[in-house]
Amino acid sequence: MLRSRHQQREATRTAIVEAARVLFSERGFDETSTQVVAIAAGVAGGTVFVHFRDKGALLRAVVDGGAGAVVAAAVSVLPAVGVLRQLGSLGGSLFHYFGADRRLGRAWVQETLFDSLEDRPEGLLHRAAALIDSAR
User: Fold this and answer.
1) pLDDT of res. 68
2) Is residue 40 predicted with pLDDT exceeding 80?
3) Which positions ≥6 away from 80 have C-beta within 8 Å?
4) Do 11 and 3 touch, CB atoms closer than 8 A?
5) N or C terminus: which one in the chain shows less Cβ crowding within 10 Å?
6) What is the mean pLDDT of the segment spanning 20-39?
7) SS3 label, residue 34
């Protein structure tokens, strides 16, 4: 079956993200080069940079695929009252997610947790800030 260019691009991106997820979990972020990710994904080394501006952006894509779903699910069932309970619930969900993969969690904290709100409007800090703003 022939795939469209868009489908091929998405399949390549998915392969890169999945290879990075496995390698970051097994080896750690610092010990994994983009060249190794490319080999594991079955693409040329430069292809990683067609999809991601740097290794940090690749890490964010890996985390967004897992923790992003966890955050979205946690936000959908937040307790109705109390910003501290809401933040605790959100944090607890992430704690459990990253507790299962400590290397990935460590890399996320070191590399992306404190990205600016403007750079990551869907990220954890943006969601936490929205909870605090709504409590005011």
Assistant:
1) 75
2) yes
3) none
4) yes
5) N
6) 95
7) helix
